[in-house]
Design brief:
single chain; 201 residues; alpha/beta; 2 domains; 5 helices
């Protein structure tokens, strides 16, 4: 579930809050409604504290804020792997992963989302993907078989982990790819299995 999915509920919540503020609820509901903001503040405070303090690793890999954890170190690891492989660009199979890597500014090489390139045509400035590249995605989601329809050469480089330092992280797999069989900038690379682009990190 993504954070914006409950958005249709927000107008309903606003109407209920307005009714409570206007005194249109009976006394029993008014008492319950008066407690809601304090419960909300308490829950929001606990979540923000958990997000700010990585040592509050209460959930392990099931941490609901894991998509926010460990990106600076992970981006550095991706860049080190790119340099080690001599790759000229970095590809990601999720727009969320590509955006996070770009946000860290750890690499001077182009970083591109590879599945739905048509979504980025309106940005006007197409990346230049020359030579070999480093493709990184969640280990559970990407195999060499997904890349062979798009590249003549695919080599598994190894695993990278993202998360809190000293704790089990989310495993990613890195592949060095070369000899593209498709126009990566315009068409991108659809994996072997039909899968939409995703923000899943």
């Amino acid at each position: 579930m993504q954070a914006h999915w409950p958005a249709p509920l927000y107008p309903v919540a606003a109407l209920l809050a307005a009714s409570a503020a206007d005194g249109r609820l009976n006394s029993r509901w008014r008492i319950a409604a008066s407690a809601v903001p304090w419960v909300g503040f308490g829950v929001a405070g606990a979540i923000l504290l958990h997000m700010a303090l990585p040592q509050t690793d209460w959930f392990g890999r099931r941490d609901p804020v894991m998509p926010l954890r460990g990106w600076p170190t992970f981006a550095e690891d991706v860049e080190a792997s790119r340099l080690k492989a001599g790759a000229g660009w970095v590809g990601a199979f999720s727009y969320g992963g590509a955006a996070e890597l770009l946000d860290q500014q750890a690499s001077s090489a182009p970083i591109v989302e590879l599945i739905e390139r048509e979504r980025y045509a309106a940005l006007g400035q197409a990346p230049t993907l020359k030579g070999s590249g480093l493709v990184v995605d969640l280990a559970r989601r990407l195999t060499a078989d997904d890349l062979t329809p798009c590249f003549g050469a695919v080599r598994r480089l190894g695993d990278l982990y993202r998360g809190n330092a000293g704790r089990p992280g989310i495993p990613y797999t890195a592949f060095v790819v070369a000899d593209p069989k498709v126009d990566l900038v315009k068409r991108g690379c659809r994996p072997g299995k039909d899968r939409p682009a995703t923000a899943d990190f």
